[in-house]
Amino acid sequence: MRFPHPRSHSRRAACLALLGSGAVLLSPAARAQQASTAAPRPTAPLLDGPLKIVVGYAPGGASDRAARLLADSLKDRLGVPVIVENKTGAGGRLSAQQVKAAGPDQNVLLAGNPAISVVAPLVAANVGYDPIRDFAPVSMLTRYDFAVAVGAAVPVREFTHLIAWLKANPDKANFGVPATGSLPHFFALMIGEAAGLKPQVIGYRGSAPLATDLLGGQIPVAVDTLDSLIPLHEAGKLRILAVGSGARLPEAPALPTLKESGLPLVADGWNALFAPSSMPAAKVQAIARAVEASMKEPALQAKFRANRMTPVAASQAQTVKLLADFRAKWEPVVKASGFRE
What we know:
The structure is a single chain. This protein has 341 residues and is of the alpha/beta class. The chain has twelve helices and ten strands. Strands 1, 2, 3, 4, 5, 6, 7, 8, 9 and 10 form a ten-stranded mixed β-sheet that branches. The longest helix has 22 residues, at 316-337.
């Protein structure tokens, strides 16, 4: 009778023990594949301290909500706390000034939007920063759509009827917008020009007072972000007649676009992250990769949509192009309006 070699027996016993305990022997390639699908928490922090995201508006607004939703996911990927700080004032410009002044050793980002990064430098003499020279785009966060709504006292139910009614009642051609010099302000001017109207654009101190006057009949028409108007539309307190998106939106499929209503206009806005130009490029790229990965998480995307925001997962290079295209579209519109603060 032949007996197994003692060393062969030992190896067999070891393998049986591993299998019995549920362990799996993997090749180096398989181990690398398994590691790539593991939890996002890094073995060592990617940054040398907490990351601060500065928001130029009060808590609860779209920019603030976007930053806070991201922060919860991003802290696990970066391995450090992510803090959201609200620096309000001057239409968000104080936040940009603060981030611009950050030194190269500070982990700080700006939660920017078109009002801060595109419009303000075009309409004000000195905002205290250059959006191209003083900041590096990091990543997109969200995009949002615009909508045109009327109060219950306005006797129309379609956008084409609104245009006819305003032409028959030119004294009522008043468009309310959430802020003078905001993107909705210039979009309202575009709508008026395309429809053959000369509306008076009236700026408010935010979406809430604009909605109050729209519901109260003090102003007949509002041009604002869809997320601000749709809760009141769904409650039957106002009527959204058209949206500025290129196609009907999945979250509001019953709402026609301006294009469907006869005006060849498409417009949207965004929230994005910017680093001060003093931040080392390697650190900017590391943060950008982490943000992009977080924004691809289905759970985080669901949270954004639950907050009526459309999440955008984009690389740093894609973000740079998206912002450049947006600037090229809107700069001529803002300049042509002649609006100055």
